[in-house]
Amino acid sequence: MTDPGLMSIGAFAKLAGLTASALRFYDDAGLLRPERVDPLSGYRFYSEAQLVRALQLRQLREIGMPLPTIGRFFTASAADALRLIDDQVARATAEAEGIQQTAAALKAFLGEGAYLTLCVLPGPVLAAAVDQVLATTTHDPEIPVLGGVRLEADPDALSLTATDRYRLATRTLVPASLLPLPGRGRWPETTSRPPRRGSGGASP
């Protein structure tokens, strides 16, 4: 005989905002055991007191918390449980930002934007910085990169670097705004200049 204070899995699932299959899965995972299982039919029954745990379980899954972490959540102290929530929110936020940046890059390549903006600098400022480091470049057919300027966009600065293997020149600019390239912490690019007339190659 079924206890009148217990609910069938279907009724409990409806109150908790879960599916019956999800409840069976959480039972198998050891996260939410039914109050009673009928020994003959195998039917699961739940009590009203289990609703709080079921609702928390649903909410934890909604923020993307992995099942092993949810298991620790239910056995943790209040302070540790709060920390687990904060850690998951931080991970989810970072993942969302990465998704947004990757989507922006894809849209740019698909034509919604002709270019992916990494930073904004006044033209004269950038031109002056390029001129300052260009003097350190050289023309070497065997090492073409020595004739260019390396640009690196960091989270808060744009760096220009050039070298002829004997000298090194670097200029760091703070842009008006800077956006990181999706999927990478740094965005390197090289801008080359035409060879200088009469310049000799660098010896190895």
UniProtKB/TrEMBL annotation:
Organism of origin: Nocardioides daedukensis
Residue segments, region Disordered: 180-204
PROSITE patterns reported in the protein's UniProt record: HTH_MERR_1, HTH_MERR_2
Gene3D superfamilies per record: 1.10.1660.10, DNA Polymerase III, subunit A, domain 2
UniProt keyword Membrane present: no
Residue ranges of every copy of the HTH merR-type domain listed in the record: 6-76
Keywords, ordered alphabetically: DNA-binding
Top-level taxon of the source organism: Bacteria
Name used for this protein in its record: DNA-binding transcriptional MerR regulator
Organism ancestry: Bacteria, Bacillati, Actinomycetota, Actinomycetes, Propionibacteriales
GO BP, one annotated term: DNA replication
GO MF term list: 3'-5' exonuclease activity; DNA binding; DNA-binding transcription factor activity; DNA-directed DNA polymerase activity
GO cellular component term, pick one: DNA polymerase III complex
Pfam family, one: DNA_pol3_beta_2
